[in-house]
Amino acid sequence: MEREVINLQDKRIERIIVSISAMIADAIEVAQKANAMSIDSEKKLILAQLKLENLYIQLKESENI
């Protein structure tokens, strides 16, 4: 009987460990996706800034003609 109780406790602990491990894996995945989104947003902002600068230069050049 005592062995069955120990086995049930072991299985319960194992389920808790697996659950916590899955939560950690999910959190890591979310963090990686957030980092990728941040990098993508930064690239898009830099591209937009470069396009605005180019447009500004073109407008200034057309004023000088």
Model description:
It is a single chain. The chain is built from 1 helix and no strands. The chain is rod-shaped. It has 65 residues and is an all-alpha fold. The protein has one helix at 2-64.
Strand count, sense and barrel status of the largest sheet are: none
- Strand element count: 0
CA radius of gyration is 28 Å
Range of strand content: under 5%
Helix/strand/pairing category: mainly alpha
Distinctive features:
single chain; mainly alpha; 97% helix
Summarize the structure.
The chain has one helix spanning 2-64. By secondary structure, it is mostly helical.
List the helices and strands and how they pair.
Elements: H1 2-64
